Amino acid sequence: MGAIAAGLQACRDGIAAACQKAARDPASVALLAVSKTFPAAAVREAWQAGQTAFGESYLQEALAKQEALADLPLEWHFIGPIQSNKTRPIAEHFAWAHGVDRLKIAQRLSEARPSDLPPLNICIQVNVSGEASKHGVALGQALALAHEVAGLPRLKLRGFMAIPQETPDPAEQRSQFARLRELLEQTAGLGLDTLSMGMSSDFEAAIMEGATIVRVGSAIFGKRDYT
Ligand SMILES: *Cc1c(COP(=O)(O)O)cnc(C)c1O
């Protein structure tokens, strides 16, 4: 077994163990393989090992990879921050966008979503730690934004996404993820079903708090090299 297939298997095993601990059905947690900075060949290898959903943060890099992998039926998620001048290519080339944190970006995505594609799946990114440096709408404004985004025609609002403040303390990890879960619980009537939370170092805590998509990169593909 190659390193990527082994990483994927270890990750699936970790998700299954966390689900057992949380008394959840493992089928209720989807694994999004975060392939940013890794080459198309690595994505192809992961696909051969059964992975179909991939997350990317850098638009140009993602588009080049999509072209190189156009022969595969992959599902692409844009998980980086979204600048307004990037909304068209994101609306045209992805199935999901997880980093929506203001209405203007959502409106532009909706306007640019081609009519021959299904609605673009959206997660609103929420700043659950309150750190000034973090992207995401403030916790106190997320519900209002969700109601506005849910009304846009070419989008399908699915739920919320968060990148919490890094901490090795599982209890502190859980309390940040719990804020996102409690937010989702306040959206009755919007039909939301997604909590995109948990990465390589904290997906167990995220699953304990109800994650439905975990976004895992380095635990599958290895350490990233940004040089
Ligand atoms: C890079 C990235 C991940 C994956 O992080 P790992 O620690 O490598 O698992 C998840 N989510 C987002 C938004 C990212 O940018």
General description of the model:
The chain has 227 residues and is of the alpha/beta class. The chain has a single domain (3-221), classed as TIM Barrel, CATH 3.20.20. It is built from nine helices and nine strands. Strands 1, 2, 3, 4, 5, 6, 7, 8 and 9 form a nine-stranded parallel beta sheet that branches. Strand 4, helix 5 and strand 5 (120-127) form a beta-alpha-beta unit. The longest helix has 19 residues, at 3-21. It is globular. The model has no long low-confidence stretch (mean pLDDT 97). The structure holds pyridoxal-5'-phosphate. Pyridoxal-5'-phosphate binds next to strand 9 and helix 9.
Poorly predicted sequence stretches spanning 5 or more consecutive residues:
none
Percent helix, as a range, is 40-55%
Return the domain count: 1
Rounded to the nearest angstrom, the distance between the terminal CA atoms is 28 Å
Mean pLDDT: 97
Apparent shape: globular
Largest sheet: 9 strands, parallel
The DSSP helix count reads 9
Quick structural summary:
The chain is of the alpha/beta class.
Summary keywords:
binds pyridoxal-5'-phosphate, 9 helices, nine-stranded parallel beta sheet, TIM Barrel, 227 residues, single chain, alpha/beta
List the topology elements.
Layout: H1 3-21, E1 30-34, H2 40-48, E2 53-56, H3 59-68, E3 75-78, H4 87-93, E4 96-100, H5 103-112, E5 120-127, E6 137-138, H6 139-150, E7 155-161, H7 170-185, E8 194-196, H8 203-208, E9 213-216, H9 218-221
Parallel strand pairs: 1-2, 1-9, 2-3, 3-4, 4-5, 5-6, 5-7, 7-8
Bound molecules: pyridoxal-5'-phosphate.
